[in-house]
Write a structure and sequence with these properties.
This protein has 3 domains: 99 residues, no CATH class; 126 residues, Jelly Rolls; 75 residues, Phage tail protein beta-alpha-beta fold (3-Layer(bab) Sandwich). The protein is 32% helix and 32% strand. The protein is built from 8 helices and 20 strands. Strand 19 and strand 20 form a beta hairpin. Helix 1 crosses helix 3 and helix 2 packs across helix 3.
Length: 306
């Protein structure tokens, strides 16, 4: 089975197909004995996992141990457990994790890579590295709501149902549009850029509407500001920042390289324009120092001012 087929089966089992996609998929299953057999195998695994309830830390630890210990195919109770592992390997192959153990939530999480997702309503999402997107299994039935930690680009399909992105600092409410959201759950810093359409932001007494070309920032103290931007913030190939706060830049380094930072709130508000590579942390720090005129260093995996 190729990855596209695996992805389609996962999308079907998780309830993230539109009615049209579901109908076409079931027609293909009816025509193909091989596809029907693979679907049954995945459905058995899916059924087993949905009956279980685990502590997330325990699940992560157990899966890591399993990865380290498994060497060859083995069968227990009639199951080929490497196929069970394959159902999870799908997620690794797409650089994301989906966990349904005892929960009504669907969670996609990325590691060092970027993942592209399509939701049941045809909304397209590009999830930045080390980011987490969560939504209810019933997404699209009555509501369209997701929660984000990290960064994602959204191309939201048009609908009479509001599309809402929940973040640590507030909610972004959408009606068919293109925008991106960066939300640092550790500091509360949030940056929203609108490229097309219209969105509103609600959080802690604030209720504002953005138009294309506007950027909304919620800083670490909860202060909200809106400004215009010329070039949108890019993070697919490199980290391109156009007049953004240092907090955003350091937050990008946290997502890309997994490094923490410890800098004063006053300094985090300083704005810079620069472009950083996604494969050389040392070069990033050097560029940041050259542009800012400061002396940042990496100590114990934390960026600090020397």
């Amino acid at each position: 089975m190729n990855l596209n087929t695996e992805d389609t089966i996962v999308k079907y089992l998780s309830g993230n197909m539109s009615e049209e996609e579901r109908t076409l998929f079931l027609e293909e299953v009816a025509k193909s004995d091989v596809l029907s057999s693979e679907l049954d195998s995945f459905r058995n695994v899916w059924s087993l996992t949905n009956q279980l309830s685990y502590d997330q830390d325990a699940v992560d630890a157990s899966w890591h141990n399993f990865q380290q210990e498994v060497k060859a195919p083995f069968r227990i109770l009639g199951f080929d457990w490497l196929k069970v592992a394959a159902s999870f390997t799908i997620l690794v192959a797409f650089s994301l994790g989906m966990w349904f153990f005892g929960s009504t939530d669907v969670t996609f999480s990325t590691d060092s890579n970027i993942a592209k997702l399509t939701l049941a309503d045809e909304t397209k999402i590009e999830l930045n590295s080390n980011s987490v997107l969560t939504y209810d299994k019933s997404f699209g039935n009555e509501t369209r709501e997701v929660s984000l930690s990290g960064q994602a680009y959204f191309n939201v399909s048009k609908s009479d149902k509001k599309f809402i992105v929940h973040s640590i600092s507030g909610d972004v409410i959408v009606h068919g549009t293109e925008f991106s959201v960066f939300a640092n759950e550790h500091t509360g810093f949030t940056l929203v850029e609108l490229y097309e359409g219209s969105i509103s932001y609600k959080g802690k007494g604030e209720d504002v509407v953005l138009v294309p070309g506007q950027r909304l920032i919620v800083d670490e103290t909860g202060e909200v500001s809106i400004s215009k931007f010329v070039s949108k913030s890019e993070w697919s190939e490199n980290i391109a920042c156009d007049n953004v706060p240092l907090s955003y830049i350091l937050g990008q380094l946290n997502l890309t390289y997994g490094v923490a930072f410890k800098v004063s709130n006053r300094m985090l508000k300083e704005h810079y324009t620069l472009s950083l590579p996604k494969d050389d942390l040392s070069a990033c720090i050097k560029i940041l120092n050259d542009v800012s005129g400061k002396s940042f260093v990496l100590i114990d995996n934390t960026i600090v001012l020397k």
